[in-house]
Specification:
Shape: globular
Helix content: 55-70%
Structural class: mainly alpha
Largest sheet: none
Strand content: under 5%
Radius of gyration: 20 Å
Order of helices and strands: HHHHHHHHHHHH
Number of strands: 0
């Protein structure tokens, strides 16, 4: 009997969200402003990156041979589209308020996702015989990136606990909600890659390129946001200065944001031939958070109904 193409044996739900950006400070992790910028920069990467993820899995749908996995992919696309929009709103209504230069932040990721990784990379029309291989490679990029996002999700759920440690509740909830959904759909992109291609050598090659690129985006984005913060020492505002890497490592030691060593260790796990993201994180932990996230609209509606029922019960008592 052949193995199931989809490893996800739990329900995945695209959730509507609504975050209020009226008062959240730029230094939303007051104990570690450097870490605040390290997390905030992800919004710029994720808006373009997750749109790319949606596009790639949508293109892969006709080649998926398993109906359950095809449905998983469709839910993945819907979740990622919501993620992208939520971070776009956070940029427009939160980061722009503090004078963050959105053009510079976007430019770096646009070159990657909107220029090089297009169907016609850098405007070059690929021969038909290469188009399927190019799709397989780009789905492999999604699978590799999702390895990091699910790992980040598990880190946030088990170590960061931002809101409980006095960080801004809205920004904490945005990134923790997103982290939890990354854990929830962590198997999908990898399962799709395995189903339409499954080539280990290509998988390893793609990760060999993706890992340093992902780490660079993290470092460069943090620096660019830190430039807007006069409280950050100048020596921490350059990836060429040891002080930057020391500050990043210190933030990791305090569990506010994953550091350079985390990226290295996380990367190496992906190269195991037996690797599967199913074993990388806890679905139960993720869904427990999602059931009580204040930003999830359905949770808010459920809470309002519960309060009305409670009031009615008190009146009738």
């Amino acid at each position: 009997m052949s193995k199931a193409a989809s490893k996800a044996d739990w329900e995945m739900i695209p959730r509507k969200v609504d975050f209020k950006w009226d008062v959240s400070p730029l230094q939303w992790i007051p104990q570690d402003p450097f870490a605040s910028h390290g997390i905030n920069h992800f919004s710029f990467t994720l808006v373009r990156g997750e749109f790319f993820f949606c596009r790639m899995l949508n293109q892969a749908l006709p080649y998926i041979t398993d109906e359950k996995l095809k449905q998983d992919a469709k839910i993945f696309i819907r979740q990622e589209a919501i993620h992208s929009q939520a971070h776009k709103v956070s940029i427009d209504e939160y980061l722009v308020r503090y004078g963050v230069n959105t053009t510079e932040q976007y430019q770096r990721v646009v070159k990657i996702f909107d220029n090089f990784l297009l169907d016609d990379p850098l405007g070059y029309k690929l021969p038909k015989r290469l188009q399927r291989g190019w799709l397989n490679l780009r789905v492999g990029v999604v699978a590799a990136a999702e390895h990091f996002t699910s790992g980040l999700g598990q880190y946030v759920l088990t170590r960061s606990h931002w809101e409980a440690r006095g960080c801004d509740p809205v920004v904490s909830d945005l990134f923790t909600w997103h982290s939890a959904e990354e854990v929830e759909h962590r198997t999908v992109a990898f399962d799709v890659y395995q189903n339409i291609c499954g080539n280990y050598a290509l998988r390893a090659l793609v990760m060999g390129i993706t890992a340093p690129l992902f780490t660079y985006l993290m470092a460069a984005g943090t620096v660019q946001l830190a430039m807007h913060d006069s409280s950050i020492p100048k020596k921490q505002k350059s990836i060429w200065r040891p002080a930057f890497w020391k500050a990043w490592h210190h933030s990791d030691l305090n569990s506010y944001v994953p550091g350079p060593l985390w990226y290295l260790v996380t990367t190496l796990r992906y190269f195991k031939p037996s690797y599967h993201p199913y074993y990388e994180a806890s679905t139960e932990l993720a869904q427990a958070y999602l059931s009580q996230s204040k930003g999830v609209v359905d949770n808010q509606q459920t809470s309002q109904v519960s309060k009305k029922q409670e009031v009615a019960q008190q009146v009738n008592a």
